[in-house]
Amino acid sequence: MDIQDARVLARELMDEHGLGDWTLVLDRAKRRAGVCRYTDRAIGLSAHLTRLHTLDQVRDTVLHEIAHALAGPRAAHGPRWRATATAIGASPDRCLPEDAARIPGSWLGTCPRGHTVDRHRRPSRVLSCRRCGPGFSVDSIFTWTHHGVPTDPGEGYRRELAGILTSR
After folding, report:
1. What is the DSSP code string of 59-109?
2. d(CA 120, CA 31)
């Protein structure tokens, strides 16, 4: 969706639902589409994801965050928030649908069985594959590439990995 059109849409919806004194912020988030910042009285949208999402997805994201603002900070994604979201026409789901466009991270972790996870930031801790089993498993530790090149995540990571492997 065009960013300027998203700004107009968000402002109209915020005003319609009584958030005229709240601000709209476009940020650089790559994992979450929106955020409600109660202390700042601001609704934030990811500029990156807004550009990738459809009008309906952006509308639902804005309404999702408006529901947070109306339900209050303690509502989280509980019954009060869900009721508010439904009442204003937002999906009462916590996250975007699985098929929504996303931005893949430049760091790719691969477990020994071939399952992958991506990250936008360099991993600082040793992680293992959740699909291979619950909890941490030495047998399912991810190896990392950055932009497709096998990469060492750094000294702290190496130290942690060495400690894990020697205590085996």
Report:
1. HHHHHHHHHHHHH-TT-TTSHHHHHHHHHHT----SS--TTS-----SEEE
2. 9
Per-residue pLDDT of the chain (168 residues; tens, 9 = 90+): 999 999 999 999 999 999 999 999 999 999 999 999 999 999 999 999 999 999 999 999 999 999 999 999 999 999 999 999 999 999 998 777 778 888 999 999 999 999 999 999 999 999 999 999 889 999 999 999 999 999 989 999 999 999 999 987
Query: Alpha-carbon torsion 94, 60, 36, 13, what sign?
Result: negative
Domain ranges of the chain: 3-88, 107-167
Domain 3-88 classification at class level: alpha beta
The model's pTM: 0.77
Nearest C-alpha neighbor of 70 from the set 7, 11, 16: 16
